[in-house]
């Protein structure tokens, strides 16, 4: 029998190319048609990138209720590769009220372009200060324009300062714009660009029926807030939200990040008068339309994935394989577990694709491996199969253990994955208590069908979202995996059966069948793309610095 591990590895053909720079993309739409005479759309834009001939979702904006010309506060961050044609697709959807998912949404149109088109400008010169570049195109639906609907994408290169600032605002005695209740205020912050245009930095949530609102704290990068220029002018505007989308202007004020930093440096609140220019001109005794207060300002040093890896953080990789009867008898060539002498099955392809990447970040390369849904000898009771020893050497060791166990076990059921998640979470919990960035856990689950313990799995994922771990689920075979998307959080925030939301998105689900006609290397890129950010988000949120970061920084050389 040929070496299946080498065959699968050769099939994948991993190719890596360095990212030249990172680009921020801002999105706005105009002229979206109303649903009917009485209601406007609730738009949301989904960004997709093309890889190996297929479109994959990267991120999506927030949903803006009742708006025909939305300006989204969500900013897409995209890696730019000079030597690649990076195709982008912006899809506009009308989201059903009370639901942020796409399942019941109406598709309103799309625009396709390349990142080079968005960034193309005589002024868009990498490694120098960049000016913005805007691309406006009509939205298309089934190849035809959708009335006067258009989308505008603004691109800007990151300045290199990736630190963040945490801000917390409140207001006091705002003007009342409603007759039968109090105003429903929200705050918008705009950055004033060099050419005088404005870029939306952040939009707070709406606080209903309250003239002295306290908005939730938020984090924003210094590049997004002020392009790294502490003296750059910022305009802050307060609105009274209306359900018809025609929000009432309350007032505005100007400031700079330098002024905001006084709250951090002096340990006190900073406040501004909220001014309505029309009232100021017309009303003789006008003072202000309320006061906006900065309660908290904290600059946060953001470390990169490389900082943590170079600081000694290890990726602890665990594999769990579905051994339920729905896979078919492994002795039958139609089985998903059939071992062909020359061609790896889908389980092996997925295992090698993901494992080959992860094992480079684990110094001992000893991986725990489990199987679920099988009858285990000698008494053939349902349990979790594991090799002896439980940890095997490298991905090739996992492959060999998988091949060796198939003749010994009996495929059965059910497809319960919560116990596996809980087992890895137990190890991650021990790491969390060390309060050091030494081990981050990745669990790869390979399954051929929809899981049967969805409630317990949701509970386990919500618990795991507080821990240093990520979960990757690859659906093998041709089953309908629609219900699995709920675990990915793509159709809204995942919640436990008790209603508790995940602290952060840690699950990535991908059906392997989407990659059958693409290079298998695309699978690894798709399922692992979010992991570096998940690692960084966890440790930065906990305020955990990379270990030995000072030694790492002193060893780096900087070009002039």
TrEMBL record:
Statement: the UniProt record of this protein carries the keyword Repeat: yes
InterPro entries in the cross-refs: C2_dom (IPR000008), C2_domain_sf (IPR035892), C2B_Copine (IPR037768), Copine (IPR045052), Copine_C (IPR010734), VWF_A (IPR002035), vWFA_dom_sf (IPR036465)
Matches recorded under PROSITE patterns: C2
SMART domains registered for this protein in UniProt: C2, VWA
GO BP terms: cellular response to calcium ion
Assigned GO CC terms: plasma membrane
GO MF, any single term: calcium-dependent phospholipid binding
PANTHER family: COPINE, COPINE-4
Family to which the UniProt record says this protein belongs: Belongs to the copine family.
The protein's name in its UniProt record: Copine IVb
Source species: Nothobranchius furzeri
Gene: cpne4b
